[in-house]
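Record type: monomer structure entry
Structure origin: computed from sequence
Chain ID: A
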Amino acid sequence: MFALKGFSDSDFDLLRRFLSRREVLKNELVCKADEAAHLLYLVEDGAVKLVQRASVDSADDVTLGVIKAGGFFGEEALLRENQTYMSTVVAVENSVLMTMDRESLQKLMAESISVGTRLLLALSRTYREALSTPEVMGRIITFYSTKGGTGNTTLAVNTAAMLARSGKRVAVLDADMQFGNASLLVGAPANLNIARLIQKEERLAFDRIKGFLTRKGNVDYLFSPELPQDAELVSRANLGQIIRAVATHYDFIVIDASAEINDQTLLAWDLADLIVLVSIAELSGITRMHRLFRVLSRLNYHKDKFAVLVNRFRTTQASFVEEFRKLPVGHVGTVAFDEQTLNAEFAGIPLVEQAAGSPAAKDLALFVQQMTGEEALDKTRKGGIFSRLKSLFS
């Protein structure tokens, strides 16, 4: 069923009579930005992504959003004549698209002006929202670990706190929908959370979302659901809406992703400017990371989209870090083992606020300084991730 409000089953049955079917393969180009817009596309099955494409070989694609089954794009083709597509669209996986041109729309209007009018109203609202969205969006940093217990949430929360200390506008989204615990690490109740937002608000615009944000230490948090079963309320589509709405009001959005690889995790990866992979220095951590890259290799991300942070690092574990450096990532850093981290977690205060001079806090400060271009870069890594991040994040 397509995401068109106000449509009954009989309306959809009528609409389908005027749609044409198109099958696309993974990574196939569907349409290009600035080319003449002739077709509306509705995603029947699979998924596509909207990208900003700087080069023909797609190496520098920036993902603007992902549209799953039920969504649509290319509405500008039906709303006005002589329009061009606003985004380049590429298939994320083998997908089935249903299309409609202006001639088919006219036939639909002749058959049922009420159904045709509702279609145009639904397309028009989405089109107006797209035009009104600011082009400048905050940078998205997704923290991900292949297993729980590595300190993924701790590093995400402390990175956000450190960015806020440098004067940046920062929001954190706890996207571990079943068992997220970012609220505990900042000493805040989780009664305001993403599940309640979706239950109470029909329109996921920022003016509605901000009422469900919790502010702690100059960082705004959108917490995960209190109950694991409420995770079912959060779809990939509305999570994407929330991320994009929030991204237009902050310099940085830090996403704490679930260890499970699901639709929401894939979305958090696709939308991220930087994916921080968190592990600990042990054989199982290295093994899991290699297995993870078997998945990531299929997504055609550039290696500079990744940074690895080896958490709870001890100097005796240097040989493990060298193994992490063999991965196709732009940067590998370490965060020292620090007993003060646990004390800060129990106190519900980020380590970088409670003990800014501690070893782990200093390591995170260096990581953040490198991201924002405020720290001299390692001269032996010219052209690496942080030379790119300096222009990307500053």
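Annotation 1: The chain has two domains: 9-132, 139-393.
Annotation 2: The chain is about 40% helix and 20% strand.
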